[in-house]
Amino acid sequence: MRLADNPALQAAIASKGPVVCLFLLEEDDRLRPHGGAQAWWLDKSLKALKTDIENRGGQLVLRRGQAQLVLDQLIRETGAGSVFWNRRYGSAERDIDTSIKAALNDRQIHVESFNGTLLTEPWSRKTGSGGYYRVFTPYWKSLRANYTPPSPLPAPDRLDGGTRLTTDALESWKLHPTQPDWSTGFSDYWAPGEAGALARLNNFCKTGLTSYDPQRNRPDLQDGTSRLSPHLAWGEIAPGRIWRTVRHSVELGEANENSAMVFLSEVAWRDFAYVLLYHCPNLARQNYNPSFDHMPWRTDPQALEAWQGGQTGYPIVDAGLRQLWQTGWMHNRVRMIVASFLTKHLLLPWQLGEAWFWDTLVDADPASNAAGWQWAAGSGADAAPYFRVFNPISQGEKFDETGGYVRQWCPELSGLPRKHLYAPWEADAVTLAKAGIRLGDTYPKPLIDHKEGRQRALDAYNILKQRRDAA
After folding, report:
1. Is residue 282 annotated as part of the catalytic site, yes or no?
2. pLDDT (tens digit, 9 = 90+) per residue, 342-384?
3. What whole-number distance in Å separates Cα of residue 261 and Cα of residue 10?
4. Catalytic: which of 26, 121, 173, 269?
5. How far apart (Å, rounded) are the C-alpha atoms in residues 200 and 305?
6. So where are the chain's domains?
7. Which residue among 41, 140, 329, 373 is the active-site one?
8. For 325-345, what is each residue's pLDDT tens digit?
9. CATH topology of domain 7-116
10. If one looks up domain 118-149+191-279 in CATH, what number appears?
11. Residue 44, pLDDT above cutoff 90
12. What does residue 33 show for φ and ψ, rounded to 5 degrees?
Protein backbone atom coordinates (compact mmCIF):
# COMPACT_ATOMS: atom_id res chain seq x y z
CA MET A 1 0.00 0.00 0.00
CA ARG A 2 2.87 2.35 -0.82
CA LEU A 3 5.00 3.53 -3.72
CA ALA A 4 8.31 4.19 -1.95
CA ASP A 5 10.47 1.32 -0.65
CA ASN A 6 8.36 -1.11 -2.65
CA PRO A 7 10.67 -3.75 -4.14
CA ALA A 8 7.95 -5.42 -6.23
CA LEU A 9 6.98 -2.10 -7.81
CA GLN A 10 10.62 -1.23 -8.51
CA ALA A 11 11.19 -4.61 -10.16
CA ALA A 12 8.14 -4.09 -12.36
CA ILE A 13 9.37 -0.64 -13.42
CA ALA A 14 12.81 -2.08 -14.16
CA SER A 15 11.23 -4.55 -16.61
CA LYS A 16 10.75 -1.52 -18.94
CA GLY A 17 7.16 -2.32 -19.89
CA PRO A 18 3.86 -0.68 -18.96
CA VAL A 19 3.13 -1.29 -15.27
CA VAL A 20 -0.35 -2.32 -14.18
CA CYS A 21 -0.91 -1.67 -10.46
CA LEU A 22 -3.45 -4.15 -9.12
CA PHE A 23 -5.07 -4.39 -5.71
CA LEU A 24 -6.84 -7.71 -5.40
CA LEU A 25 -9.45 -8.14 -2.68
CA GLU A 26 -9.38 -11.89 -2.31
CA GLU A 27 -12.45 -14.00 -1.81
CA ASP A 28 -11.19 -17.34 -0.59
CA ASP A 29 -12.54 -19.52 2.22
CA ARG A 30 -9.00 -20.33 3.28
CA LEU A 31 -8.35 -16.70 4.27
CA ARG A 32 -9.46 -14.95 7.42
CA PRO A 33 -11.84 -12.10 6.52
CA HIS A 34 -10.87 -8.55 7.43
CA GLY A 35 -12.24 -7.23 10.70
CA GLY A 36 -14.54 -4.24 10.66
CA ALA A 37 -11.89 -1.71 11.71
CA GLN A 38 -9.45 -3.16 9.18
CA ALA A 39 -12.01 -2.69 6.44
CA TRP A 40 -12.45 0.95 7.44
CA TRP A 41 -8.69 1.52 7.17
CA LEU A 42 -8.39 -0.36 3.89
CA ASP A 43 -11.08 1.84 2.32
CA LYS A 44 -9.20 5.03 3.20
CA SER A 45 -5.78 3.61 2.36
CA LEU A 46 -6.95 2.53 -1.09
CA LYS A 47 -8.30 6.00 -1.76
CA ALA A 48 -4.92 7.49 -0.87
CA LEU A 49 -3.02 4.95 -2.97
CA LYS A 50 -5.33 5.49 -5.93
CA THR A 51 -4.67 9.22 -5.79
CA ASP A 52 -0.90 8.75 -5.49
CA ILE A 53 -0.84 6.49 -8.55
CA GLU A 54 -3.11 8.70 -10.63
CA ASN A 55 -0.96 11.74 -9.85
CA ARG A 56 1.87 9.87 -11.56
CA GLY A 57 -0.15 9.09 -14.65
CA GLY A 58 -1.02 5.53 -13.66
CA GLN A 59 -4.11 3.62 -12.66
CA LEU A 60 -4.91 1.51 -9.61
CA VAL A 61 -6.96 -1.42 -10.84
CA LEU A 62 -9.34 -2.81 -8.24
CA ARG A 63 -10.60 -6.37 -8.67
CA ARG A 64 -12.06 -8.90 -6.28
CA GLY A 65 -12.41 -12.68 -6.37
CA GLN A 66 -10.14 -15.70 -6.24
CA ALA A 67 -6.57 -14.63 -6.84
CA GLN A 68 -5.71 -17.12 -9.59
CA LEU A 69 -8.87 -16.34 -11.57
CA VAL A 70 -8.48 -12.57 -11.25
CA LEU A 71 -4.83 -12.67 -12.31
CA ASP A 72 -5.57 -14.96 -15.26
CA GLN A 73 -8.25 -12.57 -16.47
CA LEU A 74 -5.99 -9.53 -16.13
CA ILE A 75 -3.15 -11.30 -17.93
CA ARG A 76 -5.51 -12.06 -20.82
CA GLU A 77 -6.60 -8.42 -20.94
CA THR A 78 -3.09 -6.99 -20.91
CA GLY A 79 -0.85 -9.67 -22.36
CA ALA A 80 1.37 -9.28 -19.30
CA GLY A 81 4.59 -11.27 -19.36
CA SER A 82 5.66 -10.69 -15.76
CA VAL A 83 3.98 -10.57 -12.38
CA PHE A 84 5.53 -9.10 -9.23
CA TRP A 85 4.31 -9.01 -5.63
CA ASN A 86 5.54 -8.60 -2.07
CA ARG A 87 5.37 -11.75 -0.01
CA ARG A 88 2.80 -12.86 2.53
CA TYR A 89 3.58 -15.16 5.44
CA GLY A 90 0.36 -16.77 6.65
CA SER A 91 0.03 -20.45 5.80
CA ALA A 92 -3.02 -20.08 3.55
CA GLU A 93 -1.54 -17.04 1.84
CA ARG A 94 1.71 -18.88 1.16
CA ASP A 95 -0.18 -21.84 -0.28
CA ILE A 96 -2.17 -19.57 -2.60
CA ASP A 97 0.90 -17.63 -3.73
CA THR A 98 2.98 -20.77 -4.29
CA SER A 99 0.22 -22.27 -6.42
CA ILE A 100 -0.11 -19.08 -8.48
CA LYS A 101 3.64 -18.86 -8.99
CA ALA A 102 3.84 -22.47 -10.20
CA ALA A 103 0.88 -22.05 -12.57
CA LEU A 104 2.29 -18.87 -14.10
CA ASN A 105 5.77 -20.35 -14.46
CA ASP A 106 4.24 -23.30 -16.32
CA ARG A 107 2.89 -20.79 -18.83
CA GLN A 108 6.31 -19.12 -19.20
CA ILE A 109 5.14 -16.02 -17.35
CA HIS A 110 7.92 -14.51 -15.29
CA VAL A 111 7.08 -14.27 -11.56
CA GLU A 112 9.05 -12.65 -8.75
CA SER A 113 8.19 -12.05 -5.11
CA PHE A 114 9.99 -9.87 -2.56
CA ASN A 115 10.20 -9.02 1.11
CA GLY A 116 8.35 -5.75 1.43
CA THR A 117 6.89 -6.39 4.88
CA LEU A 118 9.56 -7.33 7.41
CA LEU A 119 13.06 -6.42 8.48
CA THR A 120 14.23 -9.95 7.67
CA GLU A 121 12.54 -13.06 6.34
CA PRO A 122 11.10 -15.32 9.08
CA TRP A 123 13.19 -18.28 7.95
CA SER A 124 16.48 -16.43 7.63
CA ARG A 125 17.61 -16.05 11.24
CA LYS A 126 18.69 -19.29 12.95
CA THR A 127 19.73 -20.19 16.48
CA GLY A 128 23.07 -21.83 17.18
CA SER A 129 21.41 -25.24 16.88
CA GLY A 130 19.86 -24.38 13.52
CA GLY A 131 16.28 -23.89 14.70
CA TYR A 132 14.12 -20.79 14.86
CA TYR A 133 14.11 -18.39 17.79
CA ARG A 134 11.44 -19.05 20.43
CA VAL A 135 12.61 -16.33 22.82
CA PHE A 136 12.63 -12.70 21.78
CA THR A 137 15.70 -11.36 23.62
CA PRO A 138 18.28 -13.55 21.80
CA TYR A 139 16.38 -12.95 18.56
CA TRP A 140 16.68 -9.19 19.07
CA LYS A 141 20.36 -9.45 19.96
CA SER A 142 21.02 -11.41 16.78
CA LEU A 143 19.09 -9.00 14.58
CA ARG A 144 20.53 -5.89 16.17
CA ALA A 145 24.09 -7.15 15.77
CA ASN A 146 24.00 -7.62 12.00
CA TYR A 147 20.91 -6.01 10.48
CA THR A 148 21.44 -3.44 7.75
CA PRO A 149 18.30 -1.89 6.26
CA PRO A 150 17.94 -2.00 2.48
CA SER A 151 18.81 1.09 0.51
CA PRO A 152 15.95 3.52 -0.06
CA LEU A 153 13.73 2.92 -3.08
CA PRO A 154 12.16 6.26 -4.02
CA ALA A 155 8.61 6.44 -5.30
CA PRO A 156 8.53 6.64 -9.11
CA ASP A 157 7.91 10.01 -10.72
CA ARG A 158 5.77 8.42 -13.44
CA LEU A 159 3.76 5.23 -13.76
CA ASP A 160 2.83 4.28 -17.32
CA GLY A 161 0.15 1.63 -17.25
CA GLY A 162 -0.72 1.71 -20.93
CA THR A 163 -4.39 1.25 -21.85
CA ARG A 164 -6.92 2.07 -19.15
CA LEU A 165 -8.52 -1.04 -17.72
CA THR A 166 -11.89 -1.76 -16.19
CA THR A 167 -11.81 -1.48 -12.42
CA ASP A 168 -14.27 -1.96 -9.59
CA ALA A 169 -15.63 1.14 -7.92
CA LEU A 170 -14.18 1.20 -4.42
CA GLU A 171 -17.58 2.18 -3.04
CA SER A 172 -19.04 -1.09 -4.36
CA TRP A 173 -16.84 -3.01 -1.94
CA LYS A 174 -18.69 -1.39 0.98
CA LEU A 175 -15.65 -1.37 3.26
CA HIS A 176 -16.86 1.70 5.14
CA PRO A 177 -19.36 0.69 7.83
CA THR A 178 -23.01 1.65 7.47
CA GLN A 179 -26.20 1.00 9.39
CA PRO A 180 -24.77 2.05 11.74
CA ASP A 181 -21.56 3.89 10.94
CA TRP A 182 -19.70 3.00 14.14
CA SER A 183 -16.47 4.58 12.81
CA THR A 184 -17.55 8.14 13.59
CA GLY A 185 -14.47 9.81 15.05
CA PHE A 186 -11.89 7.44 13.54
CA SER A 187 -10.80 10.10 11.06
CA ASP A 188 -10.04 12.45 13.97
CA TYR A 189 -7.25 10.08 15.03
CA TRP A 190 -5.93 8.59 11.80
CA ALA A 191 -4.69 9.59 8.34
CA PRO A 192 -4.47 6.30 6.40
CA GLY A 193 -2.10 6.17 3.45
CA GLU A 194 1.59 6.49 2.71
CA ALA A 195 1.69 10.25 3.29
CA GLY A 196 0.02 9.80 6.67
CA ALA A 197 2.55 7.11 7.61
CA LEU A 198 5.53 9.29 6.73
CA ALA A 199 4.09 12.27 8.57
CA ARG A 200 3.51 10.11 11.64
CA LEU A 201 7.08 8.78 11.55
CA ASN A 202 8.66 12.19 11.08
CA ASN A 203 6.58 13.76 13.83
CA PHE A 204 7.41 10.95 16.23
CA CYS A 205 11.15 11.23 15.55
CA LYS A 206 11.00 14.96 16.27
CA THR A 207 8.72 14.95 19.31
CA GLY A 208 8.49 11.49 20.86
CA LEU A 209 11.52 9.36 20.09
CA THR A 210 13.94 10.76 22.68
CA SER A 211 11.43 10.26 25.49
CA TYR A 212 10.09 6.95 24.15
CA ASP A 213 11.75 4.66 26.70
CA PRO A 214 10.53 6.39 29.86
CA GLN A 215 7.14 7.36 28.44
CA ARG A 216 6.03 4.44 26.24
CA ASN A 217 4.12 2.78 29.09
CA ARG A 218 2.06 5.87 29.92
CA PRO A 219 -1.33 5.85 28.17
CA ASP A 220 -2.12 9.32 29.54
CA LEU A 221 0.47 10.86 27.19
CA GLN A 222 -0.66 11.77 23.69
CA ASP A 223 2.71 11.13 22.03
CA GLY A 224 4.20 8.48 24.28
CA THR A 225 4.15 5.95 21.43
CA SER A 226 4.59 6.27 17.67
CA ARG A 227 1.14 4.99 16.61
CA LEU A 228 2.78 3.61 13.50
CA SER A 229 1.32 0.12 13.98
CA PRO A 230 -1.63 0.43 11.54
CA HIS A 231 0.62 1.97 8.89
CA LEU A 232 2.99 -0.97 9.28
CA ALA A 233 0.17 -3.49 9.30
CA TRP A 234 -1.12 -2.14 5.98
CA GLY A 235 2.29 -1.78 4.36
CA GLU A 236 2.03 1.99 4.05
CA ILE A 237 5.57 2.26 5.36
CA ALA A 238 8.47 -0.19 5.25
CA PRO A 239 10.05 -1.30 8.54
CA GLY A 240 13.44 -0.69 6.93
CA ARG A 241 12.40 2.92 6.31
CA ILE A 242 11.57 3.26 10.00
CA TRP A 243 14.94 1.79 10.95
CA ARG A 244 16.84 4.16 8.65
CA THR A 245 14.93 7.22 9.84
CA VAL A 246 15.35 6.42 13.53
CA ARG A 247 19.07 5.76 13.15
CA HIS A 248 19.43 9.01 11.21
CA SER A 249 17.75 10.89 14.05
CA VAL A 250 20.31 9.45 16.45
CA GLU A 251 23.19 10.41 14.16
CA LEU A 252 21.87 13.98 13.99
CA GLY A 253 21.66 14.14 17.76
CA GLU A 254 17.86 14.48 17.68
CA ALA A 255 17.30 11.27 19.67
CA ASN A 256 19.28 9.32 22.24
CA GLU A 257 20.63 5.87 21.52
CA ASN A 258 18.78 4.07 24.30
CA SER A 259 15.28 5.25 23.42
CA ALA A 260 15.95 4.66 19.73
CA MET A 261 16.98 1.04 20.25
CA VAL A 262 14.10 0.37 22.64
CA PHE A 263 11.73 1.63 19.95
CA LEU A 264 13.42 -0.42 17.22
CA SER A 265 13.19 -3.48 19.44
CA GLU A 266 9.41 -3.09 19.26
CA VAL A 267 9.61 -3.04 15.47
CA ALA A 268 11.74 -6.19 15.74
CA TRP A 269 9.14 -7.80 18.03
CA ARG A 270 6.74 -7.61 15.11
CA ASP A 271 9.30 -9.55 13.04
CA PHE A 272 9.59 -12.08 15.87
CA ALA A 273 5.81 -12.55 15.81
CA TYR A 274 6.06 -13.38 12.10
CA VAL A 275 8.73 -15.96 12.86
CA LEU A 276 6.25 -17.62 15.20
CA LEU A 277 3.42 -17.39 12.66
CA TYR A 278 5.58 -18.81 9.89
CA HIS A 279 6.55 -21.84 11.95
CA CYS A 280 3.19 -22.16 13.75
CA PRO A 281 0.48 -21.41 11.18
CA ASN A 282 -2.39 -21.87 13.65
CA LEU A 283 -1.05 -19.23 16.04
CA ALA A 284 -4.39 -17.39 16.18
CA ARG A 285 -6.36 -20.52 17.08
CA GLN A 286 -4.20 -23.07 18.85
CA ASN A 287 -2.05 -22.80 21.97
CA TYR A 288 1.61 -22.44 21.07
CA ASN A 289 2.30 -24.27 24.33
CA PRO A 290 0.13 -27.41 24.08
CA SER A 291 0.02 -27.69 27.87
CA PHE A 292 -2.62 -24.98 27.77
CA ASP A 293 -4.96 -27.38 26.00
CA HIS A 294 -5.64 -28.57 29.56
CA MET A 295 -6.61 -25.13 30.90
CA PRO A 296 -10.07 -25.16 32.56
CA TRP A 297 -11.38 -22.08 30.80
CA ARG A 298 -14.79 -20.75 31.77
CA THR A 299 -17.79 -19.96 29.59
CA ASP A 300 -19.43 -16.67 30.57
CA PRO A 301 -21.10 -14.71 27.73
CA GLN A 302 -22.24 -11.93 30.07
CA ALA A 303 -18.73 -11.34 31.42
CA LEU A 304 -17.33 -11.34 27.87
CA GLU A 305 -19.91 -8.77 26.77
CA ALA A 306 -19.10 -6.57 29.77
CA TRP A 307 -15.39 -6.80 28.97
CA GLN A 308 -15.95 -5.97 25.30
CA GLY A 309 -18.07 -2.96 26.21
CA GLY A 310 -15.70 -1.55 28.82
CA GLN A 311 -18.09 -2.29 31.69
CA THR A 312 -15.93 -4.46 33.96
CA GLY A 313 -15.90 -2.06 36.91
CA TYR A 314 -12.11 -1.68 36.70
CA PRO A 315 -11.44 1.81 35.27
CA ILE A 316 -8.10 1.17 33.54
CA VAL A 317 -9.58 -1.91 31.83
CA ASP A 318 -12.75 -0.10 30.82
CA ALA A 319 -10.83 2.93 29.57
CA GLY A 320 -8.75 0.74 27.26
CA LEU A 321 -11.71 -1.09 25.79
CA ARG A 322 -13.62 2.15 25.23
CA GLN A 323 -10.58 3.71 23.57
CA LEU A 324 -10.45 0.66 21.30
CA TRP A 325 -14.12 0.98 20.33
CA GLN A 326 -13.99 4.72 19.72
CA THR A 327 -10.64 4.95 17.91
CA GLY A 328 -9.81 1.44 16.61
CA TRP A 329 -6.62 1.40 18.67
CA MET A 330 -5.46 0.80 22.22
CA HIS A 331 -2.25 1.76 24.01
CA ASN A 332 0.10 -1.22 24.22
CA ARG A 333 0.47 -1.21 28.02
CA VAL A 334 -3.30 -1.20 28.33
CA ARG A 335 -3.57 -4.05 25.82
CA MET A 336 -1.54 -6.17 28.24
CA ILE A 337 -3.75 -5.13 31.17
CA VAL A 338 -7.06 -5.89 29.45
CA ALA A 339 -5.72 -9.18 28.06
CA SER A 340 -4.55 -10.28 31.48
CA PHE A 341 -7.93 -9.36 32.94
CA LEU A 342 -9.83 -11.43 30.37
CA THR A 343 -7.65 -14.53 30.56
CA LYS A 344 -6.91 -14.50 34.29
CA HIS A 345 -9.48 -12.56 36.29
CA LEU A 346 -12.35 -13.72 34.09
CA LEU A 347 -10.66 -16.99 33.07
CA LEU A 348 -11.99 -16.75 29.53
CA PRO A 349 -10.06 -18.22 26.55
CA TRP A 350 -7.54 -15.93 24.94
CA GLN A 351 -9.01 -16.74 21.52
CA LEU A 352 -12.09 -14.68 22.44
CA GLY A 353 -9.94 -11.63 23.08
CA GLU A 354 -7.86 -12.21 19.96
CA ALA A 355 -11.04 -12.35 17.87
CA TRP A 356 -12.38 -9.12 19.44
CA PHE A 357 -9.12 -7.31 18.74
CA TRP A 358 -9.10 -8.69 15.19
CA ASP A 359 -12.48 -7.11 14.54
CA THR A 360 -11.93 -3.79 16.32
CA LEU A 361 -8.26 -2.87 15.81
CA VAL A 362 -7.20 -0.82 12.80
CA ASP A 363 -3.73 -2.36 13.27
CA ALA A 364 -4.96 -5.96 13.58
CA ASP A 365 -2.04 -8.03 12.34
CA PRO A 366 -2.17 -11.82 11.89
CA ALA A 367 1.15 -12.34 13.65
CA SER A 368 1.35 -9.60 16.30
CA ASN A 369 -2.26 -9.93 17.42
CA ALA A 370 -2.06 -13.68 17.98
CA ALA A 371 1.44 -13.59 19.49
CA GLY A 372 0.46 -10.77 21.84
CA TRP A 373 -2.60 -12.57 23.12
CA GLN A 374 -0.72 -15.82 23.64
CA TRP A 375 1.99 -13.89 25.47
CA ALA A 376 -0.58 -12.36 27.82
CA ALA A 377 -2.37 -15.65 28.40
CA GLY A 378 0.87 -17.48 29.20
CA SER A 379 0.41 -19.99 26.37
CA GLY A 380 2.77 -18.40 23.85
CA ALA A 381 6.45 -18.35 23.03
CA ASP A 382 8.52 -16.40 25.54
CA ALA A 383 5.23 -15.70 27.32
CA ALA A 384 4.49 -13.96 30.58
CA PRO A 385 4.24 -16.68 33.26
CA TYR A 386 0.63 -17.67 33.80
CA PHE A 387 0.96 -16.95 37.52
CA ARG A 388 1.82 -13.32 36.68
CA VAL A 389 -1.58 -11.68 37.09
CA PHE A 390 -1.66 -7.97 36.40
CA ASN A 391 -3.30 -5.99 39.18
CA PRO A 392 -5.62 -3.60 37.30
CA ILE A 393 -5.69 -1.22 40.25
CA SER A 394 -1.95 -0.79 40.72
CA GLN A 395 -1.35 -0.84 36.96
CA GLY A 396 -3.64 2.16 36.61
CA GLU A 397 -2.01 3.96 39.52
CA LYS A 398 1.48 3.33 38.17
CA PHE A 399 1.09 4.10 34.48
CA ASP A 400 -1.82 6.54 34.26
CA GLU A 401 0.18 9.01 36.31
CA THR A 402 -2.06 12.02 35.77
CA GLY A 403 -5.35 10.15 35.71
CA GLY A 404 -5.95 11.71 32.31
CA TYR A 405 -6.41 8.40 30.50
CA VAL A 406 -9.19 7.07 32.70
CA ARG A 407 -10.87 10.46 32.88
CA GLN A 408 -10.84 10.77 29.08
CA TRP A 409 -12.36 7.39 28.31
CA CYS A 410 -14.48 6.95 31.46
CA PRO A 411 -15.81 10.50 31.85
CA GLU A 412 -18.40 9.40 34.42
CA LEU A 413 -15.46 8.97 36.83
CA SER A 414 -13.84 12.33 36.10
CA GLY A 415 -14.99 13.87 39.37
CA LEU A 416 -13.19 11.30 41.52
CA PRO A 417 -9.91 12.24 43.19
CA ARG A 418 -7.00 10.24 41.82
CA LYS A 419 -6.75 8.38 45.13
CA HIS A 420 -9.94 6.50 44.24
CA LEU A 421 -9.85 6.71 40.45
CA TYR A 422 -8.70 3.11 39.85
CA ALA A 423 -10.83 1.48 42.59
CA PRO A 424 -13.97 3.63 42.94
CA TRP A 425 -15.70 1.02 45.10
CA GLU A 426 -13.20 1.82 47.84
CA ALA A 427 -14.35 5.46 48.01
CA ASP A 428 -16.71 6.45 50.80
CA ALA A 429 -20.31 7.38 50.10
CA VAL A 430 -19.68 11.11 50.45
CA THR A 431 -16.83 11.05 47.89
CA LEU A 432 -18.92 9.03 45.45
CA ALA A 433 -21.91 11.31 45.84
CA LYS A 434 -19.78 14.42 45.37
CA ALA A 435 -18.42 12.92 42.12
CA GLY A 436 -21.94 12.02 40.96
CA ILE A 437 -21.23 8.30 40.95
CA ARG A 438 -23.72 5.57 41.87
CA LEU A 439 -21.94 2.23 41.68
CA GLY A 440 -24.01 -0.31 39.80
CA ASP A 441 -25.88 2.52 38.08
CA THR A 442 -23.69 5.27 36.59
CA TYR A 443 -20.62 3.01 36.72
CA PRO A 444 -20.57 -0.78 37.18
CA LYS A 445 -19.40 -2.62 40.24
CA PRO A 446 -16.38 -4.88 39.63
CA LEU A 447 -17.18 -8.14 37.86
CA ILE A 448 -14.93 -9.91 40.35
CA ASP A 449 -12.76 -8.96 43.30
CA HIS A 450 -9.11 -8.70 42.32
CA LYS A 451 -7.85 -11.10 44.98
CA GLU A 452 -10.59 -13.58 44.19
CA GLY A 453 -9.87 -13.39 40.46
CA ARG A 454 -6.15 -13.78 41.00
CA GLN A 455 -6.65 -16.84 43.20
CA ARG A 456 -9.07 -18.39 40.71
CA ALA A 457 -6.46 -17.96 37.98
CA LEU A 458 -3.76 -19.60 40.11
CA ASP A 459 -6.09 -22.47 40.98
CA ALA A 460 -6.84 -22.97 37.29
CA TYR A 461 -3.13 -23.07 36.52
CA ASN A 462 -2.65 -25.76 39.17
CA ILE A 463 -5.41 -27.80 37.53
CA LEU A 464 -3.64 -27.37 34.19
CA LYS A 465 -0.39 -28.69 35.65
CA GLN A 466 -2.16 -31.68 37.19
CA ARG A 467 -3.90 -32.52 33.94
CA ARG A 468 -0.69 -32.07 31.97
CA ASP A 469 1.28 -34.33 34.30
CA ALA A 470 -1.44 -36.97 34.19
CA ALA A 471 -1.67 -36.95 30.39
Report:
1. no
2. 999 999 999 999 999 999 999 999 999 999 999 999 999 987 7
3. 30
4. 269
5. 34
6. 7-116, 118-149+191-279, 290-466
7. 373
8. 999 999 999 999 999 999 999
9. Rossmann fold (3.40.50)
10. 1.25.40.80
11. yes
12. -65, 155
